[in-house]
Protein: Glucanase
Organism: Staphylotrichum longicolle
Amino acid sequence: MKFSQSAALAFAATALAAPSPTTKEQPRQAAGCASAVTLDASTNVWKKYTLHPNSFYRKEVEAAVEQISDSSLAAAAKKVADVGSFLWLDTIENIGKLEPALQDVPCNNILGLVIYDLPGRDCAAKASNGELKVGELSRYKTEYIDKVVSILKAHPNTAFALVIEPDSLPNLVTNSDLTTCQNSASGYREGVAYALKQLNLPNVVMYLDAGHGGWLGWDANLKPGAEELAKAYKAAGSPKQFRGIATNVAGWNQWDLSPGEFSKASDAKYNSCQNEKTYITTFGAALKSAGMPNHAIIDTGRNGVSGLRKEWGNWCNVNAPGFGQRPTSNTGAELADAFVWVKPGGESDGTSDTSAVRYDSFCGKEDAYKPSPEAGQWNQAYFEMLLKNAKPAF
Ligand code: BGC
């Protein structure tokens, strides 16, 4: 997503502005808590903390509301701004979003952040290829991770939940035939381990991305997948603040639909994880065997409608979706800490412009919505679709 530093500073200035004389009797809500936050990653922190509706998504949604002329739809759209969602730190420049975003986090809220800038990012696709090239691991460490760490350390009174590097390790498990993924592999492994080690701070709880049931849930992928993730966890020194995995990030899978969405596909017999609930249970057991904490958070931001994809692997701007379950820790499954919104609904998964450098053929598929802008950019029509099809409705 395009974001200018000056906009961040302008927003920070607004957020920090002194209270006007008329409001001086009511002191402003200070950011964070009165004292240092200590998150116990051996428990479900979502029972105590609510995912914060971050101010960046709020601004995107508010701008979207302005464009809606139908008043009842506009009123519904407004409510989306109050839903907690993760903030993606997808470039070094976008670390600039962090300080302004933590200014309004109350003590009972947790700010969700996506760590997403590995060298050679998105090795099996093009839509989200990142700014760092293969071989630029030292830049990832010093210019990206270390910078985020210093900001989180400077705000010990605020709670943070991190989703670490979507798609990276799952791609190493299933796309190792691609030269791009072979080239990215060592940087991903060392980079993820470095991130887990450095971000292991008392006010942080960490979840490592584990794809989804239609990815690592295949019988043949469960064990290698669990081992790949556990290797990173152990290489990081088994960090105390590590809680488990994030699944269905930017995904479309249903939580507990049974029989599952692709249970009639000819290859369904090779995948017992036909919904995310089964996936986190089955993959969770494999993680346990591999020696890794195995609790999960599940992205339910865009999975309100099922049966939209022609194939399980279709990931780009799937057409006619709806917002899904709102963030909650009431999941009904012991291993599932919370349903969360990780992908900000309305931001694109990738451009449908076939002439763009980051054009990926998945964004041109029959079941992909077109036209769509570059990954991370706002797509008003798509947002309105998510809203109209939301389940539960807004
Ligand atoms: C994009 C990021 C964006 C994120 C959230 C990813 O697909 O590559 O730039 O921040 O989605 O929308």
User: Anything to note?
Assistant: Residues 1-28 have pLDDT under 50 and may be disordered. The chain has ten helices and eight strands.
